[in-house]
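Protocol step 4 of 6: structure prediction from sequence.
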Amino acid sequence: MEKREDYISWDEYFTGIAMLSGMRSKDPNTQVGACIVDKNNRILSVGYNGFPNGCSDDLFPWAREGDVLDTKYAFVAHSELNAILNYRGGSLEGAKIYVSLFPCNECAKAIIQSGIREVIYDSDKYNNTPTNIAAKKMFEAAGVKCVQYKKSGRKITIEV
């Protein structure tokens, strides 16, 4: 008997984990997930966008518009930052991060500073916005490779 040939690729696997992680987000508008892996394709950490530990998602705002303190933007930690902060194993030097949405400029700083060397992203829906341009400019200057995930068209279903 030979091994099966229809198994998912590493990119499908880690992108799927990033997307699944994003499903943990309670944000009513945008759910983003991240998965950090080492050079041996071992998962180091995952994260999703949400409020910091101890900050109740029932008490802090989810609004997108209004005064800054009445919106989520002053309080939510993005998936990439959460994945970096969730890692307890030491250095992330040389790791890859899979994200469901291209990182913002603030997350780009954390990615670069943590030593992550490659970003594999699914959506780039904020392409050409000022924060997106800033993130790409920093990634390029720091030598962080950015690759858009190429969808295989494969449908992966998980029944829980």
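Step 5 (inspection) to follow. The first helix runs from residue 10 to 22.
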